[in-house]
Amino acid sequence: MFTSKPIGFVSSPYKSAGEVPKGLGAKHVAEGVLKILPEFEPGLKDIEGFSHLMVIWEFDRSQGFELLGTPPCDNRQHGVFATRSPRRPNPIAVTTVELRRREGSNLHVGGVDMLDGTPILDIKPYLSSIPEEKLRRGWLAEAEARKS
Ligand SMILES: C[S@@+](CC[C@H](N)C(=O)[O-])C[C@H]1O[C@@H](n2cnc3c(N)ncnc32)[C@H](O)[C@@H]1O
After folding, report:
1. 74 phi and psi, to 5 degrees?
2. Cα(64) to centroid(ligand 1), Å
3. Which atom belonging to ligand 1 lies closest to the Cα atom of 18?
4. N or C of the chain: less Cβ packing under 10 Å?
5. Are 29 and 96 in contact (CB under 8 A)?
6. What Å distances lie between residue 136 and 50, 55, 78, 139, 142, CA to CA?
């Protein structure tokens, strides 16, 4: 297994977990900056052409894990791998953000849900290839239907 090493850190308006919008219908519209370390800046070549990026990052302020948990958007238990819980065996997260602009090694993005100072492990262009009609949203769709 590799030892992970941050390629940069997130500058986010959120300083504590309680500030991040949660629950059904929560919208992630906050702006943030992906501050990439200078030694990795050449790796950003041609990134400007992509509207959205997948940011892979570490839940560095999460401790331990639970295989079954009740997410904020439901009152039923689900398996950790059927949720986006921060308490997972390997504390790895992925967030799709909108790339607004690049300033050198700083990527200004919209849609962050990370806390300020979160380590970034990787960035990849978002390439959606799954047609809407093929997507199933599992228990989340059921929770949304119960709410409406
Ligand atoms: C439900 S997780 C989803 C994260 C990511 N979009 C995903 O799907 O993997 C988002 C929550 O993680 C928590 N969080 C954000 N940054 C964190 C960090 N650096 N360490 C631990 N928890 C964090 C916040 O409470 C936020 O509401």
Report:
1. -155, 165
2. 14
3. 25
4. N
5. no
6. 26, 23, 16, 9, 11
Residue 128 has what pLDDT?
A: 85
Q: Would you say the CB of residue 15 lies under 6 angstroms from ligand 1?
A: no
What b/e readout covers 130-142, taking b as 16+ CB neighbours within 10 angstroms?
Answer: eeeeeeeeebbee
Amino acid letter, residue 136 = R
pTM: 0.96
Q: What mean pLDDT is reported for the chain?
A: 96
pLDDT tens digits for range 6-63: 999 999 999 999 999 998 888 889 999 999 999 999 999 999 999 999 999 999 999 9
Nearest to 116 by CA among 33, 19, 28, 15: 15
Rounded to 5°, angle at Cα 80 from 21 and 99: 45
134 Cα: distance to centroid of ligand 1 (angstroms) = 27
148 pLDDT above the threshold of 80:
no
Ligand 1 contact, 22 CB (< 6 A): yes
